[in-house]
Amino acid sequence: MKTRKIMSLFLAGVLALGLLAGCSGKKDAASEDNTASSSETKTDSESKDGFKVAFLPTDMSATFAAWLAEELDTAFSAYDDMTLTTMDSKNQLETQLSNLETCVSQGYDYIILLPLEPAAEDDIVADYIEQGTPIMMINLDDLGVEKASSVIANPYDLGTVVSEYAKGELKDDANVVVLLGPSGNTDSIERRRAYEDVLFSQTKITILDEQIGGWEKSKGMELMENWIQVHGDKIDAVISMNDAMAIGAYEAAKAAGIEKNVKFFGVDGLADAAVAIENGEMNATALQDAQVMAEEGARVCHEVLTGENKEGFEKLQIPVTLITKDNVDEFIKRYTENGMLTE
After folding, report:
1. What are the Periplasmic binding protein domain coordinates in residue numbering (predicted)?
2. What is the torsional sign of CA 76, 80, 82, 86?
3. Do 181 and 143 belong to one domain?
């Protein structure tokens, strides 16, 4: 088994956010509105004049959100006329809505939103757009907000590519457990629909149980521990809606000594999942590429702000890639080159 350090851009990005918010002497953008739980950071171009853009992620302690924030910082640093500020929602809808209101009241030129609960936010987003603030939904569908930009990896496609691969890896009457994302979340709904259409309805697979893990590694581990207590070695596979929960489930299986008899499937394509696949601990994941998402998001934002985009919005889907043992080396190389992994 190869040992690699999973580093960096995630941890460094999160630490940088905390250090900047706590030690820079700059006032948090949301502090005047009593949202003290928000965090703020700016790209290296923070002294530039030009357009002010805000990124409102779900929770910077979540690995994918931290990766996306880091990639957005990099993408925006390539533009001389845009400055990016990140405000952490800390997995609290009220905080995200307050940050959204603050950005509008403080005159931000553009808002990039990684929404916590799209169904609860779409009407608010539509109203702000009508009032003149352009907004992009990133990594989650716009849920029909006509004039909102969106840059996403289609969640149904993410579920589909993993399901197709799993169908070839599992016996037709396999027993599986399923780790779900948050209830009502668009990605959760669409990935589950893909699992049903492509995998479960096309085989004699038995779902022993499925539970909400909320994207959390610790919850994936806890649920797997419970399942092992109930089902023992009957579990043939874990179908997880993200990599973090899958890795948590693997660690629980390893502690119980059954990991070699269980297959693990995830979604996100994170560096730690690539390492797990390289080491034979996970079987597959579907990449939703934060780097491409960020680059396209910055481009759309710039074209809207400069007037190059006459409609004022753009909707696009980035490609989805399956990562398995057959192609994981290229992703290990990529993540090593950009500092997310070290030997």
Report:
1. 53-308
2. positive
3. no
- Cα torsion at 321, 324, 326, 327 (round to 10°)? 40
Task: Describe the strand order of the beta sheet including 175-180 as a list of residue ranges.
Answer: 206-212, 175-180, 237-240, 263-268, 284-287, 321-323
- For 87-130, what is each residue's pLDDT tens digit? 999 999 999 999 999 999 999 999 999 998 888 899 999 999 99
The total number of structural domains that make up the chain:
2
Separation between Cα atoms, residue 68 and residue 239, nearest integer Å: 24
Tell me the C-alpha distance between 68 and 269, whole Å.
12
Q: Which domain holds residue 68?
A: 51-153+289-318
Confirm whether 83 is domain-assigned.
Answer: yes
In the numeric block, which tokens belong to residue 16? 């940088």
In 3D, which of 291, 321, 317 has the Cα closest to residue 154? 317
Per residue in 66-83, pLDDT (tens digit) is: 999 999 999 999 999 999
d(CA 53, CA 87): 11
Report the DSSP pairing between strands 175-180 and 149-152: unpaired
Q: Where are the beta strands (DSSP E) in the chain?
A: 5-6, 40-42, 51-56, 82-87, 110-113, 135-138, 149-152, 175-180, 206-212, 237-240, 263-268, 284-287, 315-317, 321-323, 341-342
Whether residue 35 is contained in a domain is answered as: no
Domain match, 205 and 261 both: yes
Same domain, 78 and 172: no
CA 268 to chain centre: 7
